[in-house]
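Protein modeling request. Please complete all fields; requests missing the sequence field cannot be processed.
Requester role: graduate student
Desired output: 3D structure, token encoding
Chains: 1
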Amino acid sequence: MKSLWSDSDAAEMMSRYAGQGIGEDVALRVYTSRLLGRDPRLVLHGGGNSSVKIVEADLLGDRVPVLRIKGSGWDLGALEPAGLPAVRLAPLLRARALPALPDIDMLNLLRTSQLDAGAPCPSVEVLLHAFLPDKFVDHSHSRAVLALTAQPDGAAICRDVFGNRAGIVPYVMSGLPLARAAAEVYEADPTVEGLILLRHGVFTFGASAREAYERMIALVTLAEDRLARGRKPLVQAARPAAAAPPPPLAEVAPVLRGALAEDLGDGDWRRWLLDFRTGPEILSYVNAADLPRMAGAGVATPDHVIRTKGWPLIAEPPADGKLETFAATVRAGIADYAARYRAYFERHNAGRAVPKIALDPLPRVVLVPGLGLFGIGRSAADAAIAADVAESAILTILDAEAIGGFESISESELFEMEYWSLEQAKLGKTGEAPLARQVVLITGGAGTIGFATGTAFHREGAEVVLVDLDEGAAVAAAARLGPHALGLGANVTRPEAVRAVFDQVCERFGGVDIVVSNAGIALQGRIGDLPEETLRRSFEINFFAHQTVSQNAVRVMKRQGTGGCLLYNVSKQAVNPGPDFGAYGLPKAATLFLARQYALDHGRDGIRANGVNADRIRGGMLTPEMIAKRSKARGLDERDYMAGNLLAREVTAEDVAQAFVHQALALRTTASITTVDGGNIAAALR
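Delivered output (686 residues):
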């Protein structure tokens, strides 16, 4: 590894924070923490931590020694001073004399020792940082170091690699026992630059932020150099010449996602999101002859068991290449996995004075030989974390296997870490939004109604895909919703483009649950004088595109087997045509009946179909020019035209979006058309 320290960047950081009243030590602590946290070879998703010991004034003005350490919920790569809560150092040091420190007592000690009770809770490794006397302390889960320590003779290898530059600490459960063990190793030789925690990670320390950081880089580089020597190849599994290749990712993902879903009854499902990864290293691993042993050996980093569980599910692709065969294999594999997990839990929970509460028994990582790996989570963000951690673990295991053999902690130690309350607290206990775990695809997504609908669904917890003819606009609109929203470009009048979009969504999230078929175009003209090509063009986008989108949605939803919801932007024109607007109203009337036909034909598949009849929504198709034309056609001024309803209020895109959300949540409603027009008796359905 190379040090990324920059004198100019460090000075800029100190200058920036000085204006906020932040001292140089904290500013430099933030700077080097980010350097570590932004390198996935060292730190992943909330892992690792850093600290600095300084003197600060408490609420009463007394100056006291404190430990500023990364707080729970903060990522090293994006650390800010607020993410380094200050903890009084004296109580932490006195805790070393305690015979034991139960979780609840440790949490109480941390909370009552903080200078600011509203600050985030300090890292679970706070005692280890406190017991080491150096001013700056860094902790990472370096892949290279983990590969060395995860060997049957890891301690001996590490002594050979690091010599007297680092002390070797045997694996001990985090908390007071580990902190005490690490301190004892350090005190046996205070000249060491760091500590190697077997099957856990590496600590470095120093008098300055730069010294602690660059010692980390130096020790990790020694580990990398050792891994580069004498590597043995990984033997790949022999595949019968007659065996068919695995089904495509876009077909595999919905099957896997559906198999993972839990049927809650009455059309409700607890779904999961997927995040797929592949590449040369991942394929080498999943195609290895020894995959079952390696995958079942345990985690590369104990802290990550809360993200990936103790082992992945291996889903073998079918020899005949048929998706139906794969589906049966996956469902059987998930059932076996759940049974194994329950047995694991019962085995280690038995006889406890205070029994643990079992977590769900489903896998968080699925390996598919010939294809790659899937991370699984309650949200796209959680699935991405699981996939990141799994990918990193694979790279660690490959390195470990290349120089010997991978060996994790014991099953009982794994259980203690997985069910450690302080570790579980990292996942949070917040309730889920109404549409969490669901994927919504919206055509015309960059337009006024489309984006308002995407915003409303995002607010209710759904993962959002915005599809638009203008790809740049779709990508920009999705970016406004958040990092996990997806923007795609497609001409929905082209069947091959629509299929490609649905395939991309399956590859990205695992499938789709709600489709808002919203794209349209408003063409005008007196029907008797209307050119045929104008009417045909209108039918292509205002009717046939809805059919193409619906067919692809049904294809994916049936593959998932968890039902779904089709929603259509129809129009009040479908039942109350306006003058010179037949080119628009005729295909919209057909779309209204299309919605009802899907409700009729696919209710047996658990797929609901509903529509919204909106009227006079400013923006998008209803441009200022069109408002002027439609007002003139109806003999009204523009204000009376836009608010020409029983409520005398202009209807907005947000009103339409809320109607779509309502229909998505109404699990026992199908073949329904909701009118959103402020009240127009002539457009009322009967």
